[in-house]
Every structure is written in structure tokens, then in C-alpha cells.
Amino acid sequence: MDYLKAFLVGGAICAVVQIFMDSTKLMPGRIMVILVCLGAALGAIGVYEPFAKWAGAGASVPLSGFGNLLFKGIKKSLTEEGFIGLFKGGFTASAVGISAALIFSYMASWIFNPKLKD
């Protein structure tokens, strides 16, 4: 049942974003920034964490989950280290995910033949 819930929640988030992309003239990069900021804002007011616990990977995998992860890292680092934690917390919280994305995309470039667009 957890897989079904994660699939439905993640699919609903993606469907809402797709509708937003189709109905506005915003570029995809700006929409991605909106999602990250929305996740951080919802985490700051305490709404995203209970939602993510209920929805599982359906809420933690999309970009809004990344924004919540950044907020949680900054909040933790601020309480432990003070002002410097404002700059350090997001990097330490998201380092593993970003590193994995870079490493796996580099490995995929060995398997496939990437080309630059003209």
C-alpha cells in the first residue's frame, strides 16, 4: 500500500506541475525553483514534514521534497553552529543526493553517447 500511496501522491504533484507548465508562460527552470521554494516554505511552517511522513517517497522525491530537505539542513545547522549554519546546512543536508546525481549521470554518459544540441 505504501508504494501505491507514493505513486499516487508523486503522480499528483507531477500532474499539478504539468498543468501549471501548460497553462502559464513560465520557463521550466523557474517552475523548478518555485517547487524548491514551496517545499522549503511548507517545511518552515511545519506542514511538509507530516505530509512527507504520510506520503513517503511520493512527497520526498519531487523537487518540493528537495526544498524541504534544504530547509531541514539549514534549521539543524543554525541551531548547532549559529549564523555560519545558514550557509553550511543546505550543502551538508543535500550533498549525498547531489553527489549521487552527478556520479550516476557521469556513468550514464559512459554507456550512452551524449551529444550537445546545435
TrEMBL record:
Keywords: Membrane, Transmembrane, Transmembrane helix. It comes from the Bacteria. It holds the Pfam family SpoVAC_SpoVAEB. The chain crosses the membrane at residues 31-48, 91-112. InterPro entries: SpoVA (IPR005562). PANTHER family: STAGE V SPORULATION PROTEIN AC-RELATED (PTHR38450), STAGE V SPORULATION PROTEIN AEB (PTHR38450:SF2). This is SpoVA/SpoVAEb family sporulation membrane protein. It comes from Anaerocolumna sedimenticola.
